[in-house]
Each structure stands twice: as C-alpha cells, then as structure tokens.
Design goal:
about 60 residues, globular
Length: about 60
C-alpha cells in the first residue's frame, strides 16, 4: 500500500527555501540555468523538487 505524506503549505515553503539555500542560488538563477541546461546533478535534483513543490503550492494544497 502506498504511503501518503501530508505536508502543510508552510512546510513546503520552508523546504523550498532550504533547498535553494543549500545550492546557494535564487529561484530566478536556478530557473535561468535550467533553461540553458547548465545545472550540476545536485542542482538538477533541486530544480525538479522545486518544480514539484511549486506545482503543489499553486494547487493550494
């Protein structure tokens, strides 16, 4: 049976900020580098995670 994780909006926002801080890039810098395919493997992982978080936040979870 799949596991469901329940996360608050605030927890998602905190996770997003923490991830961006870990790679020392703003969201805008990360997005620009993703657009030019110039992300490291770690940065790419963060990019995909941030995209998922933003999807959830925009869905008003």
């Amino acid at each position: 049976m799949p596991t469901m994780i329940h996360t608050t909006r605030e927890e998602l926002q905190d996770q997003r900020e923490r991830l961006l801080g870990e790679i020392r890039l703003s969201f805008e810098e990360l997005r620009e580098r993703a657009g030019t395919y110039s992300l490291s493997a770690d940065e790419l992982d963060v990019w995909h995670t941030v995209e998922g978080i933003d999807y959830l936040l925009n869905g008003e979870c």
